[in-house]
Amino acid sequence: MHRAAYLFLTSTMLLWGGNSVAGKLAVGHVSPMTLVFLRWVMAVLILLPVGWRALREDWPEVRGHWRLIAGLGACGFTIFNVIFYTALNYTTAINVSIEQAAMPIVIILANFLLFRLRVQPLQIVGVVLTIVGVALTASHGELGQLLKLNLNFGDAIMLVAVLCYSLYSVGLRLKPAIRWQSLMLALSIAALLISVPFFLWEAASGRVIVPDARGWALTLYTALGASVVSQVLYIKGNELIGANRAGLFINLVPIFGTLLSVLIVGEQFQPYQALALALVLGGIALAEYSGSKAALQMQ
């Protein structure tokens, strides 16, 4: 069971790391809110043949939990990405990477406050190691540079995005007992509806960039890889080992994003990137050892 969860979550973070690279490549080829809107249009179209029948059969449960599903779709699928793209207009990629590293901590705190779920000391050590790895990646191997960071409006709203996705991760434990096809289609429809006002705002302000060939290709990747496949795997991983342990894998995103930039964009691989990867993987392994041991003792 744990091996499947590790595979699901690692694959998710690899796809999300690819989404970071896609975001870089999309600049000038499709505007941010248009990208968010179109990715969910495509995601719904992809999921309709797969999930429509299941959604019809599960409709009584979906209707009974529509507020929860709408909230999860809004927080985890739309608002996080809208704020993420907006924050990068005001702050640096370094700041955003560091702030995203707070997600595991927020998830742990939220689980404790809402459900009284406790963590083991070694899990805290593992979280700290992964944050150091993210900091090393974000600062390009010079941790002293982090002391020079200036906080601004972009950083403030990025913290809201971190809170949104953390609450989404924790809220998955409350999802109704329906098939994943129904859940993903319902969440994606909610995400699409929530994205419409942001797209209309971008259009009204004259900031829309209609996708060109590269823009459409990147939008398809974000829809299929970063939206549909990755979210299914993330939900499955959460089901298997819980949000506290699954959330720790999120700190692999900037690591994979950096490594994929080396492979795809042609950036140069640096020794600090290898050290950062080792720290993040080591932190996850340490936290997982402690978390899985504690879970066995509770059975």
Automatic annotation (TrEMBL):
<dbReference type="InterPro" id="IPR037185">
    <property type="entry name" value="EmrE-like"/>
</dbReference>
<feature type="transmembrane region" description="Helical">
    <location>
        <begin position="272"/>
        <end position="289"/>
    </location>
</feature>
<keyword id="KW-0472">Membrane</keyword>
<dbReference type="InterPro" id="IPR051258">
    <property type="entry name" value="Diverse_Substrate_Transporter"/>
</dbReference>
<feature type="transmembrane region" description="Helical">
    <location>
        <begin position="94"/>
        <end position="115"/>
    </location>
</feature>
<dbReference type="Pfam" id="PF00892">
    <property type="entry name" value="EamA"/>
</dbReference>
<protein>
    <submittedName>
        <fullName>EamA family transporter</fullName>
    </submittedName>
</protein>
<keyword id="KW-0812">Transmembrane</keyword>
<dbReference type="InterPro" id="IPR000620">
    <property type="entry name" value="EamA_dom"/>
</dbReference>
<feature type="transmembrane region" description="Helical">
    <location>
        <begin position="183"/>
        <end position="201"/>
    </location>
</feature>
<feature type="transmembrane region" description="Helical">
    <location>
        <begin position="36"/>
        <end position="55"/>
    </location>
</feature>
<feature type="transmembrane region" description="Helical">
    <location>
        <begin position="246"/>
        <end position="266"/>
    </location>
</feature>
<feature type="transmembrane region" description="Helical">
    <location>
        <begin position="122"/>
        <end position="141"/>
    </location>
</feature>
<keyword id="KW-1133">Transmembrane helix</keyword>
<feature type="domain" description="EamA">
    <location>
        <begin position="5"/>
        <end position="137"/>
    </location>
</feature>
<feature type="domain" description="EamA">
    <location>
        <begin position="153"/>
        <end position="286"/>
    </location>
</feature>
<dbReference type="GO" id="GO:0005886">
    <property type="term" value="C:plasma membrane"/>
</dbReference>
<feature type="transmembrane region" description="Helical">
    <location>
        <begin position="153"/>
        <end position="171"/>
    </location>
</feature>
<feature type="transmembrane region" description="Helical">
    <location>
        <begin position="67"/>
        <end position="88"/>
    </location>
</feature>
<keyword id="KW-1003">Cell membrane</keyword>
<feature type="transmembrane region" description="Helical">
    <location>
        <begin position="213"/>
        <end position="234"/>
    </location>
</feature>
